Amino acid sequence: MQTERTLGGGLPPALRAGVLRRLLGQGIPWGSLTVLLLLIIAAIGGETLAPWDPNALNLANVFKPPAWHANGSFAHLLGTDNLGRDIFSRIIAGARVSVTVALYVIVLSGGVGSFIGLIAGFFGGVVDAVLMRLADIQMSIPSLALALVMAVVLDPSFTTVVIVIVITYWTWYARIVRSEVLSLKERDYVALARVAGCSNATILRRHLLPNVANTLLVLATLQVGQVIVFEASLSFLGLGIQQPDVSWGLMLADARSYMTHAWWLITLPGVAIMLTCLASNLVGDWLRDTLDPRRKQR
Amino acid sequence: MMNAESPVVSPQSPMLLKITNLQTRIAVRDGTVHALDGVNLEVAERETLGIVGESGSGKTMTGLSILKLLPQPGGYIADGSIVLDGVDLVGVPEREMARQWRGRRVSMISQDPLTSLNPVYSIGDQVGGPFLYHGLVHSRADARQAAIDVLRRVRIPSPESRLDDYPHQFSGGMRQRVVAAMAIACQPRLLIADEPTSALDVTIQVQMIELLKQIQQDTGVGIIMITHDMGVAASMCDRIAVMYAGRVVESGKVRDIYHAPAHPYTQALLASIPRLGQSRDRLSSIGGQPPSLLNPPKGCRFAARCAHRMTKCETDDPPEFKMDAGHSSACWLHEGAPHVP
After folding, report:
1. A9 contact B CB<8A
2. Numbers of helices and strands, H then E, in chain A
3. Does pLDDT of A7 surpass 70?
4. Which of B58, B51, B61, B62 is nearest to B229 (CA)?
5. B-contacting residues in A 68-87 (Cβ below 8 Å)
6. Distances from the Cα of B94 to the Cα of A123, A197, B124, B166, angstroms
7. Nearest-CA distance from B206 to chain A in Å?
């Protein structure tokens, strides 16, 4: 901070602090936090916040372009789709599905996966072999094929989407946590904790888990984007969220036939997905840097 | 409060720790490793026993046996006794071991200060942890105060201000002090220091040795100093036990070991230390390799590498012969000397 101030003495205060650097990693990522906050508000408020009923048809008003376009109007800020439904309202309504799916999946797959990874890495031997072969088998099954089967067995629904994605993603956590634990458990502080009389459970909980927490956090925030895209592709294929529920993936699926003459139908939900991914990744990086005592001082 | 439960040495057993005929084995895929085969050791209160020997001689295994933290799966104590403060630890159940003994009455300092502290907890949390865990204090504030006291005892400057710092903000020597502070937190009777100076600079080594001596004077703790550095052992220890292939081959006062080494292995070990001002083309070394502990050879284990080998050495196990007061050597060269009882 000190050096920066001296170096950029003649610049306006905002530039002195390095706006771009701030937004892209250093300092508090206000932009990303705002995006996430808006997303959460949209997810909680849903339809009540939307200017239009996201499912209201208006066949007289189809394919209206966004407001800034020559033919657009401010009544439909982001235009309308092939059935005259308001895109802006649908993006707000879709946020609920995307955010809840992401939360459920991350909590469940992160919880299950890191528990299995901790156990496998810590105890090793047969336990490790069995759990990791299970993960290998899981990873060798194409997730979309699995989703197809699940959709047939369980009927496409919100729950099915969550189950399919959790089954696909727990192996990530399990493998990464396991490999971290393999190296962490050889550290002297683990041996000394044992010397101090700590039990296996205490060592796992107090010494190993906090040390993998940073990795878990980064993994979880990276996954927000992937889960949303995964949900989108499941819904796109008709295996996930069903009409009249709204999700961003479903919007993409609906829009694909009109891609050539109504770009906004497919672009705007895509932008929503992208912004969410980007924001969650940046916030994740920031949280990691802030929470890790080794990085905090730098 | 902290002293209330400290056991007192009973008059019948002046020794703090007495290990008799300790047999530690590790079952592995190819058989059983005889990691320790009849180890006898004694440590008195306020005494430092150095255990020296090359890698794999059983130094660390001895330490782990006392703590009953043998490598799992496979490690077990097959025979012998480890009597600490009148209690044979071999018979103490695991639960009681964890709650009453480890960290409480036997403690340990490990080799690498860089990985001995958990990077995600502040120094205050880590040093205060043992007090809370063993129920010596009942609130975080008390644990904090106890941590400050014990950090002061290991000569950390202004511990109050460093309590909320994290391990990475400390230098190697300072971290080793913190580790020492954690080890002595619960006023243990016995401290096992497994190569506590190997990862430190020479100047810091000296400070560490002085610190351990100071702690010993303050608390009367018995120290087992495991090292392969004969110099460190000489400057720190009262007595030294030389281990080879899972056995104590010679033990005695530092003076005896350095000036009148009796066992050929000790002699060879001392001869291999380079000396200042002495120019040699090659450092002298002991030819050959230690025997496999999977199938230990009959007779003396050093026989294959020994310059004084006799036929008897290859068939019969040498008992410990008493050289003079407190000095014994397990070598047939001393046959005729009285056996150590």
Report:
1. no
2. 14, 0
3. no
4. B51
5. none
6. 18, 10, 29, 32
7. 22
Please give the single-letter amino acid code of residue A53.
Answer: D
Q: Say yes or no for a CB contact (<8 Å) between A188 and B130.
A: no
Domain annotation covers residue A13: no
Report if residue A7 sits inside a domain: no
User: Token match 């950029």: residue?
Assistant: A8
What is the tally of structural domains in chain A? 1
pLDDT along chain B (341 residues), means of 10: 43 73 91 90 92 88 91 88 92 88 89 85 88 84 91 89 90 88 89 86 86 90 90 89 92 90 90 75 76 84 87 87 86 80 61
AA letter at A294: R
Per-residue pLDDT at A178: 95
State whether A197 and B103 contact (CB < 8 Å).
yes
Spatial CA neighbour of A46 closest among A116, A96, A12, A85 = A96
Which H or E run includes B41? strand B31-44
Q: What is the distance in angstroms between the Cα of B324 and the nearest Cα belonging to chain A?
A: 36
A297 at B interface, C-beta within 8 A = yes
Position B2 scores a pLDDT of 43
- Please tell me which of the candidates B102, B104, B120 has its beta carbon nearest to residue A210: B120
Measured in angstroms, the CA of A122 and the nearest CA of chain B are apart by 12
In a domain, A17, yes or no: no
Residue ranges in chain B assigned as alpha helix (H): 59-67, 94-96, 123-133, 140-153, 159-162, 172-184, 202-219, 230-236, 254-259, 264-271
CB contact A185 to B (< 8 Å): no
CA distance A173 to chain B (A): 20
Three-state DSSP state, B132: helix
Using CA atoms, how far apart are residues B148 and B153, in angstroms rounded to an integer? 9
Q: Which domains are present in chain B?
A: 15-105+186-274+285-334 (3.40.50.300), 116-185 (no CATH)
Reduced to 3 states (helix: H, G, I; strand: E, B; else coil), residue B236 is helix
The Cα B68–Cα B250 span in angstroms is: 24
Residue A102 belongs to domain with CATH number: 1.10.3720.10
In a domain, A65, yes or no: yes
| CA R_g for chain A | 23
- B244: closest CA among B279, B216, B268? B268
* Angstrom distances, CA of residue A70 to CA of A59, A66, A189: 20, 9, 67
Whether the complex's predicted ipTM is more than 0.85 is answered with no
Q: Dig out the tokens for A265 from the structure.
A: 């139908």
Pick the residue of B106, B111, B120 with the most A CBs within 10 A to test the interface with A by mutation. B120
> What is the per-residue pLDDT for B3?
44
DSSP assignment of A59-115:
GGGTTPPPTTSTT-BTTBTT-B-TT--BHHHHHHHHHHHHHHHHHHHHHHHHHHHHH
Residue A164 lies in domain: 29-296
